[in-house]
Amino acid sequence: MKKLYPNAEAALQGLLHDGMLICAGGFGLCGIPERLIDAIEASGVKDLTIASNNAGIDGEGLGKLLRSRQVRKMISSYVGENKEFERQYLSGELEVEFCPQGTLAERCRAGGAGIPGFYTKTGVGTKVAEGKEVKMFDGEEYILERGIRADLSIIKGWKADEAGNLIFRKTARNFNQPMATAGQVCVAEVEEVVPVGTLDPDQIHLPGIYVKRMIIGAPYDKKIEFRTVRQRAETVAA
């Protein structure tokens, strides 16, 4: 099956619909599927539920979909760096399901592995546990968390072969791997596609069985969330 598509719009053709659940890889602006997010914005699809560690920053990454009011609910760990995310949540315009970071990763991994739920100590005795089943194991409380299965996963990889076997680059591995497995369909954007047999099998992070469609998104502009520079040291006269 030919997996490589000419652009993001073509790769998402027939996959988008109002009210769908999307798992989106990335962490802040690191390892996010920029071209696929742009195509989702351009499609006009709405009432989306998106599972992602956060929503990028204002006007970048998933922040574009918040700005265009296409998102109804976020399942996320972190809000702080996106002021529009914060504003919509506090004003009641956006539903937010807060989820501890490791729990969110495991919910997606579990969903992709066919595991409908699991017990964890994370969140016991906090608001995270409200309304959830509590079970005792060895005299200690654990709460039940549900696995996440999405209609669509969108991820960003570094290098792939034509069969969809994929390598992530350094910290861009973050949430991309568990998000990829959690979707009924996974669409990946990558920086380079090479012939089958080029990649060392031991270096592959995501087997091609999980990737249904791909695009080449390069070139990319390096975006920085926080630009931090040192003050220039004063020159001491000799």
Q: Can you tell me about this structure?
A:
InterPro entries: 3-oxoacid_CoA-transf_A (IPR012792), CoA_trans_fam_I (IPR004165), NagB/RpiA_transferase-like (IPR037171). Keywords: Transferase. GO terms for molecular function: transferase activity. This is CoA transferase subunit A. By secondary structure, this protein is α/β, with parallel strands linked by helices. The protein has helices at residues 8-11, 34-43, 63-67, 83-90, 101-112, 176-182, and strands at residues 21-24, 48-51, 71-76, 95-98, 117-120, 134-137, 140-146, 150-156, 159-161, 166-167, 183-190, 192-194, 213-216. Strands 4-3-2-1-8-11-13 form a seven-stranded parallel sheet, sandwiched between helices. The protein has a three-stranded antiparallel sheet with strand order 5-7-6.
Spatial strand order of the main sheet = 4-3-2-1-8-11-13
Shape: globular
Helix content: 10-25%
| Beta strands, count | 13
**What integer value in Å does the Rg equal?**
19 Å
Taken in chain order, the helices and strands follow as HEHEHEHEHEEEEEEHEEE
Biggest β-sheet, characterized?
7 strands, parallel
Quote the average pLDDT.
Answer: 93
- Estimated share of beta-strand residues: 25-35%
Cα(first) to Cα(last) distance is 71 Å
Give the helix tally: 6
